[in-house]
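Forum: Protein Structure Q&A
Topic: Joint prediction for protein chains with partners

I've read a bunch of threads here and the consensus seems to be that you should model interacting components together rather than docking separate models afterwards. I'd like to see that in practice. Below is the full input, 231 residues plus whatever partners are listed. Could one of the regulars post the assembled result?
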Amino acid sequence: DAGVIQSPRHEVTEMGQEVTLRCKPISGHDYLFWYRQTMMRGLELLIYFNNNVPIDDSGMPEDRFSAKMPNASFSTLKIQPSEPRDSAVYFCASSKHRRNTEAFFGQGTRLTVV
Amino acid sequence: GNSVTQMEGPVTLSEEAFLTINCTYTATGYPSLFWYVQYPGEGLQLLLKATKADDKGSNKGFEATYRKETTSFHLEKGSVQVSDSAVYFCALTLANAGGTSYGKLTFGQGTILTVHP
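Posted by a regular:
Agreed with the consensus. Here's the joint model:
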């Protein structure tokens, strides 16, 4: 398997613009997680899905953030409008509900909002 | 709630030195414990894990033992290399009594390790 695939790897956008981050989880995994990494707050869980259904979005910072998972092989995290404080590395991870499971992470998207 | 606390960093060592990065946790139920490593510019990779008390996880010369009595999972390596320079994250996920979980992770703040030749 190719692992968790995220795109783009880097994104630079102007404040106020819409940003869409994409993730393809590992085939057969039934959980998908979006994390954000910043120097100040470390790794934070934003939202996670089970079988394409959002389970907990309590980590989403504001209404400007939204996430979807239209099918088992694709998820998006959208920020609209973007702000400079959204600058961070966003990671997608997937896992399978089973004994001794582990989460597999993508390479991340480094977002810079200027 | 569940939480993970790592020793303050950064940690700077000379090659072949002994490494310890402390990690303690607070959790209800049956946590599984992990160490993830993040090399510069890359995503997180699982380094090792332990799913029940007294288990020892090991990989690439790194070891950590799940100590329920002290709620700790300290990372150790006997002789570090320059290539071990990275950020190390301790994390936990909650499992049921049979060890089944779905992988939602709670992370520590991360420890930056720099190894000089």
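The radius of gyration of chain A is 13 Å.
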